[in-house]
Amino acid sequence: MFQKLIVSLDLKVLLPDGSQRRLFDYLLPSAFLMAAALLLVVSMFMPYWQMRMNAPQYPDGLFVNVYINHLDGDIREIDALNHYLGMPPLDEGGRFERSISFLAVGVLGMLLMAGVFIGNQWAGVLALPALAWPIIFLADLWLILYRYGHSIDPESALGSAIDPFTPPILGLGTVGQFGTLASFQPGLYLSFVACSLILVGLWFHRRAYKPVVEAHKRLSVANT
Amino acid sequence: MKRAFFLFVLLSILLSACGGGTAETPAAVGLPEDAAALAAERGLTPNDVYAALKTYMPSGQTDPYIMFASGGQSGQVLVVGVPSMRILKMIAVFTPEPWQGFGFGGSSMEVLEGGNVEGNSVLWGDTHHPSISETNGEYDGQFLFINDKANARLAVIDLRDFETKQIIKNPNSINDHGGAFVTPNTEYVIEGPQYAAPIGWEFAPIEEYQEKYRGLITFWAFNRVNGRVDWENSFQIELPPYWQDLCDAGKKVSDGWIFCNSFNVEMATGGIEEGNPPFEAGASKGDTDYLHIIDWKKAEAVFKAGKAETINGIAVIRLQTAIDEGLLYFTPEPKSPHGSDVTPGGEYVVVGGKLDPHATIYSFEKMMAAIQAGGLETDVYGVPVIPLDKSMEAQVELGLGPLHTVFDDKGYAYTSLFLDSAVARWTLGGPYSGLNPDEPWSLVQKLPVQYNIGHITAAEGDTASPDGQYVVALNKWSIDRFANVGPLLPQNFQLVDVSQSGDQMKLLYDMPVGMAEPHYAQIIKADKLQPFTVYPEVGWNPDTMSVDPNAITSEAEARVERNGNEVEIWMTVVRSHFNPERVQIKKGDHVTWHLTNLEQTRDATHGFALSGYNINLSLEPGETQTVEFDATLSGTFTYYCTEFCSALHLEMLGYFMVEP
């Protein structure tokens, strides 16, 4: 079996101009892009971001985990506290984004997979949304956090006591008696890893298909 | 972290190598200088320091054991951490208690009504013997039962939320002392009687005492699934009017039997005012009373076979049936006995002499052999009596006033000596020989306690596998132990260290109990208790232990509805507001008020007090309660939160306006 695999990896591909390249060179970029797509899909089931809140009367702290399609953690309690500032329930932030997130990741994954079948620079273009994915996530999160921290109702019980703020997206912050700690979570790290895999995959992709594209060019030049 | 630890270890090794391994251990160093100075200044002995270190619980640490103590005349149950001896809670049982909202509206009203005596409410109790539910003779930490001696009532506490769920009145008994005790798998909760009453709890002249008055032992069937006593499957056995007292269920080898002592085989009827001997003398005249030996498994079969009479709604196996079916036997027990305690393996029953200096130990095997052999003489009612020499295994002379006995894991028994004001440690024999270095069936140590010890309890000390470690002496008098707080003195719970063998029992701590006179207590390993931290779902009804149909889970559902003069309110409770905050009705309306605490955060309890209407609820996180009342007072009232819940707690109120 193993023997067979080695043999198959050693197979040659005949390019249109008659030159030969190893089949392995073409499997490699596909493998990276597929792995990246897989990681993105796995990341959908993991938290991307977390906010921990510590105060004297919460010995175990409070936390909220942000997944791309839902939130979990001490939502009820954080909402109960935030109502004193007239802030909307956590669940109202990024509702639209969460509703389409699974579909979006599916599309990103499909676009990546398309690169497996496209033997030219368009593969790189199709991979761009996936590459931008973690940045899109963080930018959107920042926007939600900004809106959230700026939705204090001056008519609420403590609304006049706290100035509008944006909770930090990473690291320490303070709100009232709470110290907050924002951190990236495994889902986001997985999407970073996916991006790296895409970049490596695209590099191999270019190495494998550039000769093909050029062979085609040479052929068409020769034909004219 | 790991790395830091590794470095630390490495550093320690290097340092100790450099120092030639002369580093001293903390024990060799002794107390730090400031602690030693403090001990000297306060005149503390090494024993005092030992006791302090043994009982001190640093902030945030919790006790390894929890003690449930009867709350005596308070009608409640005390929950105490051992060894710190800190009171953790007072569970409201027979007596209204406003903090828990018990008896001031809500489902607790029905629980208390269950304890009505012939329709009259009785809002106190004389709680005596708490009993934790058992599985295979071990505490399982699911339920707690306790009796009210004054009115022959039994209460069921669910240890998921430490709340009383049921109170039942025994329809045929006037008092119970020997309750509650459970059978090894909590098939039954046993409620022994005390003072005899005419059968059917009717009137009968005292002159007809021997003919008409009877003792009764009740076997309350317990349904673990719904957490309630199952009346239909419960039964009683009629007994002679001997004033049965404390009972204990057999376990392991003696599973299926129960053993109760009695103390008025003389059948004294008092009448000091007519020149008769008073009860105290009349009931103590004879040299022996009878230990009752009851085959409850056979009794259950007899009851199920329909050989029982229904009296006041409960099945009663009549005395003659009990005799004919071989359910009941006696054996003599020395003068004014007290306590009836089965050893961990079920082999022996220990009875204290009260007015006899011995603990008398009966062998279950011998008693069974004597019953098998037959040919026993009977008492005046025809109950077979096993002669003492055919039932007794040993007698150990302990001192004056032996009462109750508990056990440890090292083959020792501990008996309270009321008159000697001491705890006696003595050795069991038979299978327990060799678990300690002392001679079997012998007194090892008498530890003075302050003062007049009644009951005694040990860590899991009445189960099939006691833990040892701690014994608590439940002293009736404290005299000079505490600062004087007037002529009514607190009781004194004294913690005793029994972790060492031999005569090494040590007194550790005095805990004043300034709310009533507790009787028995049980100590369970804390990790066997798994209570809720908050109710499992918002809208939880603690009575049904499920979500209440009238619970609302969001403020959007809060509303007031009127139907004729029926007003129904669905209200949410959350930090720091009620919703709605204004309720206006008319005088004469009938109000049904559902309240749901939306919180799911530990300790986020809210109160609900309605001024003028004698209503106060405790709404624990997730809890739903319903209060119902007629608006008989017109005017303006407030309802407000009585449990300081938040920075804006004082703002948590609403106006209740009743138009005239």
Structure description:
The complex is a heterodimer of chains A (224) and B (660). With 224 residues, chain A is of the alpha+beta class. Chain A has one domain. Helices cover 56% and strands 17% of the residues of chain A. Chain A contains 6 helices and 7 strands; from the N terminus they run H-E-E-H-E-E-E-H-H-H-E-E-H. Chain A has helices spanning 2-9, 24-43, 75-82, 95-117, 122-149, 186-223; strands at 12-14, 20-22, 49-55, 58-66, 71-73, 171-175, 178-184. In chain A, strand 6 and strand 7 form a beta hairpin. In chain A, helix 2 runs antiparallel to helix 6 (186-223) and helix 5 packs antiparallel against helix 6 (186-223). The longest helix of chain A is centred in the last third of the chain and has 38 residues, at 186-223. Chain A is elongated and about 80 Å long. The relative contact order of chain A is 0.19. Chain B is mostly beta strands and 660 residues long. Chain B has 2 domains: 65-270 and 283-528, Methylamine Dehydrogenase, Chain H; 540-659, Cupredoxins -  blue copper proteins (Immunoglobulin-like). Helix content of chain B is 12%, strand content 40%. Chain B is built from 10 helices and 45 strands. Chain B is globular. Chain A binds chain B through residues 74, 76-77, 80, 84, 157, and chain B through 574-576, 598-601, 648, 651.
